[in-house]
Automatic annotation (TrEMBL), chain A:
<comment type="function">
    <text>Part of the binding-protein-dependent transport system for phosphate; probably responsible for the translocation of the substrate across the membrane.</text>
</comment>
<feature type="transmembrane region" description="Helical">
    <location>
        <begin position="46"/>
        <end position="71"/>
    </location>
</feature>
<dbReference type="InterPro" id="IPR000515">
    <property type="entry name" value="MetI-like"/>
</dbReference>
<feature type="transmembrane region" description="Helical">
    <location>
        <begin position="268"/>
        <end position="286"/>
    </location>
</feature>
<dbReference type="InterPro" id="IPR011864">
    <property type="entry name" value="Phosphate_PstC"/>
</dbReference>
<dbReference type="GO" id="GO:0005886">
    <property type="term" value="C:plasma membrane"/>
</dbReference>
<dbReference type="InterPro" id="IPR022182">
    <property type="entry name" value="PstC_N"/>
</dbReference>
<feature type="transmembrane region" description="Helical">
    <location>
        <begin position="116"/>
        <end position="138"/>
    </location>
</feature>
<dbReference type="GO" id="GO:0006817">
    <property type="term" value="P:phosphate ion transport"/>
</dbReference>
Automatic annotation (TrEMBL), chain B:
<keyword id="KW-0812">Transmembrane</keyword>
<feature type="transmembrane region" description="Helical">
    <location>
        <begin position="241"/>
        <end position="264"/>
    </location>
</feature>
<feature type="transmembrane region" description="Helical">
    <location>
        <begin position="21"/>
        <end position="40"/>
    </location>
</feature>
<dbReference type="InterPro" id="IPR024573">
    <property type="entry name" value="DUF3333"/>
</dbReference>
<feature type="transmembrane region" description="Helical">
    <location>
        <begin position="359"/>
        <end position="379"/>
    </location>
</feature>
<dbReference type="GO" id="GO:0005886">
    <property type="term" value="C:plasma membrane"/>
</dbReference>
<feature type="transmembrane region" description="Helical">
    <location>
        <begin position="214"/>
        <end position="235"/>
    </location>
</feature>
<dbReference type="GO" id="GO:0005315">
    <property type="term" value="F:phosphate transmembrane transporter activity"/>
</dbReference>
<keyword id="KW-0472">Membrane</keyword>
């Protein structure tokens, strides 16, 4: 029996048992009620109660078996698991059907069970975060046991897969894990992106919040949202095949010599991608600035532009900073555009016309294709992932604090 | 009333500044809109050529020899025109239809990529004789550009003229089904718990903060999670629909929770109080009253979340779904590729003719996403109640 069959047979057996328990218990309750006895809950609820008593112990056995299996504590035969699970379920069902009585508060028990069930669902998101942290952390720790954090953070030579066979033979790896060029590459591209996204996003938001007649606003806002909906792989295609050649052409016309995988093209396109994040958040923030501030400013004879610059924007500043930080966080974590347009070779340079690579590109590059796990190369990807996670988490956290501050100011 | 000239000049200056500022704002918005226009025009112009594919009219002789060497079945002149991919499937067709043996058939065969590109006026590697031959055949009506049905019915191929979208389309549908099955129930249950059941305590706060954070985690991190947890820990096979669906589900979950919570919050408290006053238990109140009323909003949010997931590529890179997988999956444990992954693979191919196929693939993906979003908007406008 393979895992799939085991799961299927347990599921099938459990639902059958549950159905029988439901049906018998309900019938029992109906019979009691027709005898003129008042019961605490509806007959169907007694049915559900009995079904629950069958399913829960069965599932518990399955869960314990899965746990033992995953953590290599014991490996009971799959057939035994099925039998054990169904036997406990049957015992549970029998107990459930036996305990049906007018005094049993089946409805309350179901409500409580459902509450726990829903809480368990809600805990999946916590488990996800824990899963993310643990999976990146474990591999990173193993990585940092071999390569010092200091070398990782400040080394300037990144070649994780360089000549591994030679390294194994001599007992010394020739791979180099200095991630500094990746950090600078990420920084350069994110900076270009924010130089595009911040002015366009901010100005669009100001226009929509302060100037635009409702009709234009009703059209422009959803159209800007379209930018946010375009898949990043599509942006990547556009950056690599349309913008990059354009950059090269313009660069050459200006007497420069841009690389084919220049950082400017992905930066520009990424900037456009981030515009809607900044504009929609800024738009919300500007709208939450109370109108009385504007009216006060107008009453003192200020023009609209002066009001925006001297009253509205300073009042909305924390929100705008939050929007900016969220945008930066997007830019740092964006993968497809840079993978497709920015190239793979690490290059520590501030010149946006040169090719450079980013954290995300290297994570994707080391983990794509056939990979041998447990090599420093793949572990380095997790170490990079850890860096990325920490950085974006920090930015998101500061941004949420800023938004809270903004809300507290005006609500 | 008389103002001094300094005041007049200052006013003029301030009004000029006002107009300038408004101009900047309009320019900002216009830049974004112009980009969108350029972007879509560019993709469409690039995609249009792929709608058509060159076909050659040939007389194919089915005999013993062509069963072994498919190119023996056509005239020698046409060797360079007919796609090797088309010829390669001839023996299989003959095995499947034994009655073909000994017959001769006039048929439209797929032309090579070079001929295709030549007819479309694009860069190609045809020699001058081949170009002349192609010209003569076009004049005789034996070479044409026909609608590219193959693109929508076949899987990926290393021959550009054979490469199609079908396998990845099926893959996307499979992955989306799993994503939905995983994320929708979990998302709705979490939202119901947080909105209707959760007590005000630290755990609830933790869950809330956590969900908002997850929604902002870069998608590639979810790929790392998928690789470490689903593939390495739980032993889900790499590149499969199952691995992709679970990873996408985990990624979509926070989006669905956030929108489902908003939908639940929009149901007025009077409904809840009415149900409780009639003696319903909390769960009865939720399942019979609050949830049905919130359903249109929940579904809208789910569809929008799925539209995000269908375009996502980065996590799938990590779990191995971006690979050469020419066959459509049949079960959830088959290796599969998805639309954006196919687009990514094609975008990296060196042959120029993949460009228009990539762009057409993008059009298909965008159409799917626009349809989903339009459905969501329709649902919202049609079924959401204003209280």
């Amino acid at each position: 029996m393979d895992t799939g069959q085991t799961i299927l047979s347990i599921a099938a057996g459990l639902s059958l048992l549950a159905m029988i328990a439901f049906w018998v218990a309900r019938k029992q309750a109906l019979a009691t009620e027709s005898g003129g006895v008042r019961m605490h809950s509806r007959p169907g609820q007694y049915g559900w109660y009995a079904a629950l008593m069958a399913i829960l112990p069965g599932l518990a056995v399955g869960a314990i078996a899965t746990f033992m299996h995953l953590f290599n504590l014991a490996a009971p035969a799959q057939g035994d698991i099925v039998i054990a699970g169904l036997l406990t379920a049957a015992a549970g069902a029998w107990y459930g059907m036996r305990s049906i009585s007018p005094a049993l508060r089946a409805r309350n028990i179901i409500d409580r069970a459902i509450r726990w069930f829903l809480l368990a669902a809600a805990l999946v998101s916590i488990a996800t975060t824990i899963g993310i942290v643990l999976s990146v952390l474990f591999e990173s720790i193993r990585f940092f046991q071999q390569i010092s954090i200091w070398e990782f953070l400040t080394g300037t030579n990144w070649s994780p897969t360089a000549d591994f066979s030679v390294g194994e033979a001599t007992g010394e790896s020739r791979s180099k894990f200095g991630a500094l060029p990746l950090f600078t590459g990420t920084l350069v591209i994110a900076t270009i992106a924010m130089l595009v996204a911040l002015p366009i996003g901010l100005l669009s938001a100001i226009y929509m919040a302060e100037y635009a007649p409702p009709k234009i606003r009703a059209v422009a806002k959803p159209v800007l949202e379209v930018l946010a909906g375009i898949p990043t792989v599509v942006y990547g295609f556009f950056a690599a095949l349309t913008v990059s050649p354009l950059v090269i052409e313009v660069g050459q016309a200006m007497g420069l010599n841009p690389s084919f995988t220049n950082a400017l093209a992905p930066g520009l396109v990424m900037g456009i991608m981030i515009v809607p994040f900044i504009s929609s958040l800024t738009d919300d923030v500007l709208n939450s600035v109370p109108d009385k501030l504007r009216q006060g400013s107008y009453a003192l004879g200020m023009t609209r532009a002066e009001t925006v610059k001297n009253v509205v924007i300073p009042s909305a500043a924390p929100g705008i900073v939050a929007a900016f930080l969220l945008g930066v966080s997007r830019a740092l974590g964006e993968t497809m555009i840079v993978t497709m347009a920015a190239g793979q070779s690490p290059n520590m340079s501030w010149n946006p016309l040169e090719g450079m690579t980013t954290i995300t590109v290297q994570i994707a590059a080391t983990l794509t294709g056939d990979l041998a796990f447990d090599t420093p190369a793949t572990q380095s990807a997790f170490a990079l992932g850890l860096m990325l996670f920490i950085i974006t988490l920090t930015f998101n956290y500061i941004s949420s604090v800023m938004i809270r501050r903004m809300r507290a100011r005006y609500v | 009333m008389e103002f001094d000239s300094a005041f007049e000049a200052r006013m003029k200056k301030r009004y000029r500044a006002e107009r300038r500022f408004k101009g900047y704002c309009i320019t900002g918005l216009a830049t974004a809109l112009v980009f969108l226009l350029v972007f879509f025009t560019d993709i469409i112009v690039k995609a249009l050529p792929a709608l058509q594919q060159a076909e050659v009219r040939i007389t194919y002789v089915y005999n013993e020899e062509s069963a072994d060497f498919p190119s023996a079945g056509i005239q020698e002149d046409y060797y360079e025109l007919v796609s090797r991919g088309w010829l390669r499937i001839v023996p299989k067709r003959m095995r499947d239809n034994p009655e073909l043996m000994g017959t001769t058939e006039q048929t439209w065969a797929l032309a090579t990529d070079g001929v295709d590109q030549y007819l479309k006026g694009q860069y190609n590697k045809l020699s001058e004789e081949e170009q002349a031959l192609a010209d003569r055949m076009v004049a005789a009506g034996n070479l044409r550009l026909a609608f590219n049905t193959g693109f929508f019915t076949t899987g990926d191929s290393k021959l550009p003229e054979m490469a199609g979208l079908w396998a990845s389309l099926v893959g996307s549908i499979y992955v989306m089904i799993l994503t939905f099955l995983f994320a929708f129930p979990l998302g709705v249950m979490t939202a119901v718990y947080l909105e209707e059941f959760a007590p005000e305590n630290k755990l609830t706060q933790l869950i809330e903060v956590n969900i908002n954070n997850l929604a902002a985690v870069p998608s590639i991190i979810f790929g790392l999670l998928g690789l470490a947890v689903f593939i390495n820990f739980f032993g889900v096979p790499r590149s499969t629909v199952l691995a992709g669906g679970l990873t996408m589900g985990i990624m979509t979950l926070p989006l669905i929770i956030i929108s489902a919570r908003a939908a639940l919050r929009a149901v007025p408290d009077s409904i809840r109080q009415g149900a409780l006053a009639m003696g319903a238990s909390r769960w009865q109140m939720v399942k019979d009253h609050v949830l049905p009323l919130a359903m249109p909003g929940v579904l809208t949010g789910t569809i929008i979340g799925m539209a995000v997931a269908i375009g996502e590529t980065a996590p799938l890179l990590i779990i191995g779904m971006v690979a050469y997988i020419p066959n459509a999956p049949e079960t959830f444990t088959d290796a599969a590729t998805v639309l954006p992954a196919q687009i990514y693979t094609w975008a990296g191919e060196p042959e120029r003719s993949y460009v228009s196929r990539t762009a057409l693939g993008i059009m298909v993906l965008l159409t799917a996403m626009i349809t989903m979003n339009a459905t969501a908007v329709y649902l919202r406008n049609r079924f959401t109640r204003r209280w």
